[in-house]
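Hey,

Quick one before I head out. I ran the complex with NAP overnight. Inputs first:
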Amino acid sequence: MAKKMQVVEIAQPGGPEVLIPAEREVPEPGAGEVLIRVAWAGVNRPDALQRAGAYNPPPDASDLPGLECAGEIVAVGEGVSRQAGEQVCALLPGGGYAQYVVTPAAHCLPIPRGLSLREAAALPETTFTVWSNLFQRGGLKAGETVLVHGGSSGIGTTAIQLARAQGARVLTTAGSPEKCRACEELGAERAINYRDEDFVDVVKEFGGADVILDMVGGDYIPRNVKSLKPDGRLVMIAFLGGPKAELNFAQVMVKRLMLTGSTLRPQSHNAKAAIARVVHDEVWPLLEAGTFRPVMDQSFPLHEAAKAHARMESSGHIGKIMLEVAGG
Ligand SMILES: NC(=O)c1ccc[n+]([C@@H]2O[C@H](COP(=O)([O-])OP(=O)(O)OC[C@H]3O[C@@H](n4cnc5c(N)ncnc54)[C@H](OP(=O)(O)O)[C@@H]3O)[C@@H](O)[C@H]2O)c1
């Protein structure tokens, strides 16, 4: 077993160039944890926020970026029933930009039948986030209409497909005709290019939204409230356009709206384990039936993580950007 490993660390808060290859000690799994030899790691927008100094890891997490991976378990801590040699994908508290990472065994899931390790590594952060926010918090049901902002993102492409698979009507926003086309191919009934059209007008043509999944915030907040039907639910998962807005709360009262949101990473070990179980029960069968597939954008070798972040921040991508750590 190697004692040292290659990683990419954040030299100091800044742009993509602060992501620097380095060498670290291989971590050891504690009680309830597994050590994974990483084959592929997913790149998520929160990694870019962490790199920029705007999203600190929880106190007990690795300072290395990386919230999801797929690979092989090579060692297990006390009380773990999983075995060395098993291939898994896993939600991570951090530390995925590395050859080895530790994570709670309860946050690991099997590689879905028919998917590559690269595709499996693209699943945990988006499926956990989308399932817990759209269906558990937002209560989205078959026959309801959902508006997914940022439809071409890793989160958005997952939300469109999972909402369709559950029998919801999906409207979405994206920033170019190419992205809008991709969203409609994934099952959105109407993709709105927000640079040319006002989403409030289009959503009203469809009778309003029951649920909105929003990662933009800012001036989208009052416009989301206008777009919701009575008893609608607004679920906020990020604020790319800023966290503040002026809002007439009378509409919240009159339409009996619910405003909510969550972040995955700071939740308790048990809360994330519970999400892992429901994602395994609800989403894995869709993957194995071919009803849902992660949308894959470009991949980069681990040591070129800076290029991966630059691509993410250019917003040129559709779907998931990946880091190849050991192949497979
Ligand atoms: N709450 C949680 O637990 C949680 C977990 C994971 C991710 N997130 C958040 O969910 C979002 C999506 O994550 P991801 O990893 O899928 O990232 P991503 O693929 O980079 O998606 C972000 C998308 O947002 C759109 N966008 C960027 N800046 C925007 C702006 N100022 N106004 C409007 N749209 C903008 C871009 O598409 P266009 O070109 O169409 O604008 C881009 O594709 C991120 O904000 C991330 O922080 C939250």
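The pocket of NAP is lined by residues 44-46, 125, 129, 150, 152-155, 174-175, 179, 215-216, 237-238, 240-241, 262-264, 312, 315 (CB under 6 Å).

Talk tomorrow,
K.
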